[in-house]
Input
Amino acid sequence: MDQFKGNSILVTGGAGFIGSHLCKKLSSLSSNLTIYDNLSNGKVENVKHLPKVNFVKADIRNLKKLYSQEKTDLVYHLAAQVVVPYSMENPIEDFETNAGGTLNVLEKARKDDARVVFASSAAVYGNTTQLPTPETHGFNPASCYGLSKVVGEQYCNMYSKQYGLEVTIVRFANVYGPKCHGVIQDFLDKISRNPEQLEIIGSGMQSRDFVHIHDVVDALLLSATSDVAIGETFNIGFGKTTTIIDLAKTILRILGLSGKTVIKPTNTPWRGDIKTIWFDISKVKEILKWAPKISLEDTMKELIMERKIIG
Ligand code: NAD
Output
């Protein structure tokens, strides 16, 4: 990955889950890396041990502050309000961060003529009957979060067409791995508090496409270095879907709690939730020559061990 050498890289949201894993890798490839994060969800501990990294605690809604950062060659734009139910309760804040903040980051990239990789989401598809879902599927977001990501994507496409900015959009499915948040972490937290009962929000029949963070970091590196990625949008998932109830059963089996812990679906989904995420990943396989290598089954035990619930 010599392409990163000598390049100045800006990672927004670099103290978060995906960003900190990406920055760990980038810090070994580049000597000019800036993390720009307001720490609303990320933690400075995630990145403070990384060598040669410049950390800036600031908000992407602050254009002046973005402009004051040194000229950059590449921007990974990961900073976002990431919680779907929160977006439904706070749609304006969600829009200001995810749509307005993205516009600010694009302006910084335009000023510097920097390449951009934008983190989008399965939430742009919403509820779809086309499964697995390809990138050509239209936008049908079911949440304010999904809609603000659509707006972010549309600005990226506009900047690419009108200003010739080199942009790649990556739509993530459900990313998991060490330090992740989301449903796996939520289950582990609940079980460690009360091993007798595991509450599932919704029916448990909703399903997700789980992709490991190490595979995601590989896809992010390729997205910024491969010429064929410019102007493209890619689904980054495993290409398989797992119901939440099956996920719960797998976790309980690994913990030796099958038959002991009662699984209790609330049967009421949260507002903005979607039923199925299942990505068609043939495009990214063909164009970027990327394919996920790590399966959920292979890594679940490791994830649980990391939380020290067993062993
Ligand atoms: P995260 O919350 O761990 O990371 C986001 C980071 O952005 C946090 O460190 C947070 O402090 C920072 N941030 C939030 N608002 C900010 C603001 N206004 N200014 C500056 N920094 C701000 O989330 P993540 O899981 O690492 O997600 C990274 C990106 O990937 C997000 O854009 C998210 O929408 C997208 N994504 C993630 C997943 C997933 O499964 N984790 C799935 C789909 C899309």
